[in-house]
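Researcher: Here's a chain I'd like modeled. Treat it as a single chain, no partners, no ligands.
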Amino acid sequence: MNYFPLLLNIEYKTVVIIGGGHVARQKVEALLPTKAKIVVISPTITEELLHYVENHEVTWKMKEFEPADLDDAALVFAVTNSQVVNDAVEEATQHWQLLSRADVKGRVDFINPAVLRRGDFILTVSTSGASPRLTRQVKAELAEQYGDYYEQYVAFLGQARQQILATFEGKVKNQLLIDLLEPQLLEWIKDGRLDNCDQWLQQRLGDYL
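Model: Modeled as a single isolated chain. Structure tokens:
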């Protein structure tokens, strides 16, 4: 299957997860940074999931699945160990709702890549299900290559870009955007010298004012 890579904004949208085991926990943990409204449907859940419920990060409906559970869902995850239940979830999912079945025995509108987050800097890795082990291996390699400091780096780039777009046009704007990828900026942020970056930016902007 040829998947189309896409980053979705699901902030405040309802995501329903049917199942309360290890895979459900993985889905919840992947969804938490998105600020989606996460609803878990299952008679029982793991202790880890219960922790998220008690912290009011997840809504738990302690029950068997019913079609009405999907009424407001934008995304649906069928992650039970019962094909009968997963089939029922698929049958209840509307054509406009996106469904992912963990057992891959029916409709699969999307799959979850491995995600590495550094603030607004997001890297995803997928082998389209061919080798989850390779996916985890590459994610680990990327985590070493792109350290936590990339969160500050990308935040700086975003703020600087907004200043440039609000002040300049044409060739000057384009040149300044290119200049933002000056390697020294990354080195300063890696060393915790953010003031140097701010000084560099103001001086560079001043050259064109």
